[in-house]
Amino acid sequence: MNRPRALAGLLCAALLAAVAGCGIPDRTDVQVDGSGPAASAGSSSFARGEPPTRTASGADREAFVRNFLAAAAGEPERAYARVKQFIAREDRNRLAEKQGSEVAINVVRLIENPVITENASGLLTVRVPVQQVGVLRANGVLGPPVVTDTEYQFSLRGSAEPGQEGTEAGGYYVTDPPSVLLLDTLSLRDYYQTRTVYFWNSDATRLVADQRYLPLAVPAERLVSEAVKWLIAGPSEWLRQGVSGLPDRTALINNAVKTDGRWEVNLDLPGDDRRKLEKLGIQLAWSLSDLDGPLQLTTRNQSRVTIDDLAAHRLANAVYPLTQGPQRFTVYAGAIHPLAFEAEAIGTVPIRTEDNHDVVSAAVRRTAEKTLAALVTTAGGGRQRLVTGSGVAPVQVMTPGAQTFAAIGRPVWLRPLGAAQPYGLVVADGRLYRFDDRARMVPVPVGVAGPVSAVAASLDGHRIALIVGGRLCLSTASLDGGVVSLGPVRHVATTLTDLSAVDWAQENALAVAGSTNRSAVYEVGVDGVQQTPLVTDVGARVTHLAVYPGNPTYVLPTVMMMYEANGVSYRFRASSAETIRGEQVLDVPPPPAGGRAGSPTAPFFLF
C-alpha cells in the first residue's frame, strides 16, 4: 500500500470523526482544507453538486439570503442563470452577464451575519458586511480581489408570481441586486473541491504547487480533461515569474477518455518534444494525485508516452526530495540543542561546538549533498549578525557577515538548484535580504510599500510568504542566473490583525500568528479562503514560529508546529499547545551553583 495515501486516509478519517463530535455548527468559517468528494456523473444534488434553488428556503428569509450567496457556485457557464433565478424579473438586467473566460465570481468572507430589517411598507432590506477575498475565474483560479466594497445591500420582496399572490410558498426575490456575482467562502467550501496542479520551475528541475477550484457538479470523468486544461492555461499570475507553463499553442484534442481502464490524452504540442511530453506526464501524475492506473499521452504527430501506473510514477518522481523526517531543535543559553519528545527522532547539532555560541535563532536545511546552516548571533552593543555555512554536518566553516543590524528575523533557506550556490532570505531592520553560505547579504526589492517583518519559504523553494506593512503577502522567488528576485506580490485576506510571524503549514496553506482580540495562530489558505484556528489564545504576542510543512512526499498524522511567545516556547499538539520544558532539551550542562536554568527559545525543525 502507498504509505502517504494510507496515512492521509487515516488522518481524514480522524478529522471526520472529530468534526462529527465537536458540535461545530453547519455553517462556520472554521474550515478543513483539501479535496472534497468527487460528484458522481450527472449529479444535481443540492448538498454536494448544485446549490439550492430560489424556492428551497421557503419562507425562511435568512436561509434565502444564504442560498443567494451560494447561487453562483457550480459550473461557470450557468452561474448567471442560477443567480438570476433569485432576482426579481424587473431587476435582472442590473446584473450584466459575461461569457466564457470572462465569468468572474467575487468571493467574500462574511464578517458578521447578514442583517435583515423590515421597513414600514413591508420591504425587507439586507445588509451584508464582507471582506473581499478574491475573484474566482472560469479556469478555477482564485485571483486577488478587484473591488474594495466592505458591504453589500439589496432588498427582498415576497413572491408575486401567478398563482402565488398572498402566499409564502414562492419564497422571496432579490430587488436592487449587487452588480456582481457574489459567493461567500463557506459556499465555496461546500460546492467546490480544492485541487493542486503542478508547474515546473524555470529550469524544469522541480515542481511548484498551484491551487484550483473544481465545482463538485463537474462529473468525475471530466477530471483528467480539467487538469490538462489547467496546465495549458498556465499558472496563477503571482506564480508566473518562478515557474514555466506549457509551450504556447498547446491544446487538448477532444476530452480525455478512459478506454479499457487506461486514460488517454491527445494533445497538439508545438515542437512535438518527447522530453516535454515526459515532463508533462510527471506534472499530470501529481496533478491527478488521487488517481491510480495507466495514462497515455499522445501528440498530433503520434509521439507517445505511456505511464503504466500513476501511483508508481509519483513514487518514482517525488515532488520533494525528503528522505528523512523532521528533527526538533531549540536555542538554549545561546546555543543550539536537540529536543527530545516521545516517538520522535532526535537529531545531532549540525554545527561545530566552537561555532555554537551567542545564537539568537537558526535555520538549518538538508540538501542531497550537504547541510545548510544560518545563525542569527549577538554582535555586541545590542546588535545582531548573520553567520552562515554549508557542508557535511557538522558544518566545518561558518562565516560571519560583515554587517550588523538592530534586529534580524528568523532566516530561511531556499532549496538550491542542483549544485548551484545556495541562497536564503532574511528580514533585517524591516528590509528583506538575500544571503548565501558565506553570509553575504544583498537587499531584495519587495515591490509593495511597508516594512517587512517576517519571511517564510515553501518546500519547493520558490513560493515565498511575507508580512509587509502588517499584511500577509505571497510572492515567487526566481533563482535564474544565480540572482534571487521576487515576482508580483499578492495580498492574502485574513481576519487576523497585528500579524507577527508566518511559516508554511501545508502545500497551499500558511501558519500565521496574529490577533483576533487575543493572540492566536491560524492556518490560512494561500488565497485567504481557508481560516482554521490552531491556537486561539496564546496569551502573548507570538515572536517566533516554526512548522514542518505537510506534503505528499513525507506525510505526518498531525500538524507539527512550535512557537515562542513572551520568551516561552511551545509545542503544538492536536489542537492544543504545551510548554517546551528544560528537561526536554538535550546536552545541557547544569547551571553554575546558585544560577538559574535557562529557557528554550526560537525552536526550529531540521528537515
Task: Give your account of this protein's structure.
The protein has 607 residues and is mostly beta strands. It is built from seven helices and 39 strands.
Q: Determine the number of helices (DSSP H or I, runs of at least 4 residues).
A: 7
Radius of gyration: 26 Å
The overall average pLDDT, rounded, is 89
Strand content: 35-45%
Unreliable stretches (pLDDT < 50, length at least 5) are 1-28, 30-47
Compute the separation of the termini in Å. 25 Å
Shape: globular
Class derived from helix and strand content? mainly beta
User: Please, what is the oligomeric state?
Assistant: single chain
Q: Largest beta sheet, briefly?
A: 7 strands, mixed
Total strand count, please?
A: 39
Helical percentage? 10-25%
Topology, element by element:
Layout: H1 3-21, H2 61-68, H3 79-84, E1 104-110, E2 115-118, E3 124-137, E4 142-143, E5 151-158, E6 172-175, E7 181-184, H4 185-191, E8 192-201, E9 207-215, H5 223-233, E10 243-244, E11 251-252, E12 257-259, E13 262-268, H6 274-287, E14 295-299, E15 304-307, H7 310-316, E16 327-332, E17 335-338, E18 359-366, E19 371-378, E20 384-391, E21 399-400, E22 412-413, E23 423-428, E24 431-436, E25 441-443, E26 452-457, E27 463-468, E28 471-478, E29 485-486, E30 490-491, E31 497-506, E32 509-515, E33 519-525, E34 531-535, E35 542-548, E36 560-565, E37 568-573, E38 576-579, E39 601-606
Region (Disordered): 32-58
Organism: Micromonospora humida
Domain Lipoprotein LpqB C-terminal: 356-536
